[in-house]
Amino acid sequence: MALLRWSKKYSVGVKAMDDQHIALVRILNEMHSEFEKGQAQSATGKLLRKLTEYAHTHFSSEEEMLASAGFPGLEQQREQHRELLRQLDEYGTRYQQGDQTVYLPLLFFVRDWLTTHMLKEDKEYGPWMNKLGIH
Ligand SMILES: [Fe+2]
C-alpha cells in the first residue's frame, strides 16, 4: 500500500515540478514497501541515497526555474531546501552509525515533509509562474 498517493490537490501548477514531485513520492513509497516486506533496515542506505540525490536534482531545477522567473520568494525556497537536505544528512549519519530504529521516523518525516513541500511551500510559486505563461 502506498504511504502517499499523488493527486491533483498536490499540483503546484507547473507540470515539470509536479512530475518531479511524483518521482519523489514514488521513492517514498518504495521505502514504505521495503518496510512492509520487513526489509527496511537493509534497504535504508540505498533508498536514502536515492532520495537525497533526487532531492538535490529537484531543488536545483526548482531554484533555477524560480531564479530565471525572478520569483521573490526564492531565498526562502533555498533556505527550506537547505534545511531538508541537512535533515536528510542527519538521518544518513544516524544510519551509518548503526542506528537500527531510523527507518520508521525517516519514513514519516519524508511523508510529512513532501506533503508540506507540495501543499504549502511550492504552491506559493504556482501563480507567479502561471502569470509568466509557465504551467
Ligand atoms: Fe518542489
Task: Describe this entry's structure for a reader.
- By secondary structure, the chain is an all-alpha fold.
- The chain has 5 helices and no strands.
- Helix 2 (40-68) runs antiparallel to helix 3 and helix 3 (74-96) packs antiparallel against helix 4 (103-121).
- It starts with 14 loop residues before the first helix and ends with a helix.
Helices, strands, pairings?
Layout (H helix, E strand, L loop, with lengths): L14 H22 L3 H29 L5 H23 L6 H19 L4 H6 L4
The structure holds fe (ii) ion (FE2).
Fe (ii) ion binds next to helix 1 and helix 2.
What labels describe this entry?
mainly alpha; binds fe (ii) ion; globular; 0% strand; Four Helix Bundle (Hemerythrin (Met), subunit A); 135 residues
**Compute the gyration radius: what is it?**
15 Å
Which class in CATH terms? Mainly Alpha
Q: Major beta sheet, specifics? A: none
Distance between the termini: 31 Å
Overview in brief:
The mean pLDDT is 96.
